[in-house]
Amino acid sequence: MGAADPARVAALFDEVADLEPAQAARVLAEACAGMPTVRARVEQLLAHDRAPTRGPLVAPGEVVLAALRERSNGPVEPERPTRIGRFRVLERIGEGGMGVVYVAYDEALDRRVALKLLHGDGTAGAWLLREGQALGRVAHPNVVTVYEVGEHDGRAYLAMELVEGPTLRAWLAEERRTFGDVLRVFLAVGRGLAAVHAAGLVHRDFKPDNVMIGGDGRPQIADFGVSALAAHGAAAEPRGGHALETSLVQRGRLVGTPAYMAPEVLQGERATAASDQWSFCAALYRAAYGTPPFRAPDGDFAALAQLVLEGAPAPPPRRSDVPSWLGPILLRGLARDPARRFEDLNRLLQEIQAHLPRDPDLDPSIVRHDVRILRLSVLVAAGLAAAFTATGHLPIAPPSLALVSALLLVVEAAVVSLRWRSLARNTFGRRSAGILVGTTGAVLFHRLLSLQLGTSHEDILVVDLLLLSVVYGFVAVAIQKWVGLLASFTALASVVGALFPAVVVPAFVAGSLGSFLIVTADAFRRR
Question: How many whole angstroms separate alpha carbon 100 and alpha carbon 15?
Fold first, then answer.
């Protein structure tokens, strides 16, 4: 074994590490003809790299918890260097499990860069070089650009685009974000992660802490090289933060962040694009619903691992601004068996985008709960008026019709006032409230005018139906096309009432109250 050329071993391992076992064996047999020592060394490295962790709920948990208790025993960072490669170091901005991050100045190209200097040894540098070169070929607006990979005093460094802004985790914690804002960011991040997968790379530690939000609001994924490096044996200790959200690195065994680690990764298997998909869904679940999909006691890695490996994600809680269609998509992406997840991240993103309106500001899901309350209040008030009319307590006459419209307008105005802050979150909510109140106000004005002119109640109801058909037609053009059917329905009821005055009251009930019931039922069907 000692006679094996290390450079040759490293090159061959690079070549076969990501191949299927049978294919890797064939490549090694051809490349190592007459070199049994080199082949044996490469096979030893492959076996170590692919070996699953034994006892995933005991040994890994103990290893991780022990690592968490030993944060103070990590590598000691020497005095800040003044130069790293061709970069002049300006300031230190952070430190993670794998290295220290500096802001540096590229004098040749007159730009500031983020420069990560690793704690690892020469082996770590070789892996970083491999991953950095691959990432350098990924050009995507939602992936941090890698400028250069090199070595400084025996330690590898990575020079990359400097994103001056908070992490996605910090951005989410700054204030309560609307679902539309959260989804916009995650769709952009998902496209970046899909681009990385298309380049044949895997992140291995996707989480909100590894996404940066730039000053222009554009999210960018970072820390690919470091997570890939860790997967191949560079040891480091976890640092800072919540125990289940801290990156963990154990030589040859466990890499990632417990709160976002897929079941197969917890069992010690190699990370894949499918495990990145699982991590993406776990992060989006938490951002959308405000709670993780697997809820374990704070810092209890063993309990979390058991839930992920043996249980199922918690059913998504109901939130008024989160549409119901999101839950099933995320639960599929969080499936324990990778084969049951989406074929790839692009397919998952397509499934989400298929439910989105063309104009996000017209997304009814954001204000559906508030619009439903408004509709129900009007429906209850109209139902009570109809009941009083049917029992003879309220005569069918112009004064009574005007009184009913006035009461409906008061109810609508009260509900809109109470729910306005929620209704005004997007155009759909504002238009829904405005159309409903405006229509009732127009009907009231018409009935008061008819009362002044001495118009019969039959003629009043016919014109009311015609007015409703015009409003439904406007809604069909401005918001939802299918409401055009209700415009035709109420127009037909208006014609029937005009031609047959004896049935004008049933025609009005069918045309107005019936249409309103259909709209309300549709709102509940889409919840």
Answer: 30
> Cα–Cα distance between 172 and 245 in angstroms, integer?
15
Quick: pLDDT tens for 230-251: 343 333 333 344 445 544 444 3
Reported as a pLDDT band with limits 50, 70 and 90, residue 283 is very high
337 with 215, same domain?
yes
* The model scores a pTM over 0.70: no
Mark whether 379 and 517 lie in a shared domain: yes
Nearest CA among 342, 211, 221, 226 for reference residue 273: 342
Co-location of 380 and 425 in the same domain: yes
Kindly state whether residues 345 and 389 are assigned to the same domain. no
* Catalytic residue of the set 18, 153, 181, 205: 205
DSSP string for residues in 298-343: TT-HHHHHHHHHHS-PPPPPP-TTS-TTHHHHHHHHT-SSGGGS-S
> Annotated catalytic, 205?
yes
* 304 belongs to a structural domain: yes
Q: Which of 367, 364, 374 is nearest to 475 (CA)?
A: 364
**Calpha distance 284→168 (Å, rounded):** 11
| Number of domains, the chain | 3
Span 405-420, pLDDT tens digits? 899 999 999 999 999 9
**Sign of the CA dihedral running 258, 260, 266, 271:** negative
How far is Cα 202 from Cα 86, in angstroms, rounded to an integer? 29
Whether 479 shows a pLDDT value over 70: the answer reads no
Is 52 among the domain residues? Answer: no
Residue 66 placed within a domain = no
The CA distance from 479 to 330, in Å, is 28
Domain of 19 in residue numbering reads as: 1-44
Question: Whole-number mean pLDDT of the chain?
Answer: 78
The CA-CA-CA angle for residues 143, 333, 527, to 5°, reads 110
Instruction: Kindly state whether residue 69 falls inside one of the protein's structural domains.
Output: no
Write out the two tokens for 168.
């996605």
294: nearest Cα among 259, 320, 263: 259
Check residue 228 and give its pLDDT: 42
Do 340 and 366 belong to one domain? Answer: no
- Minimum mean pLDDT range among 214-218, 295-299, 402-406: 295-299
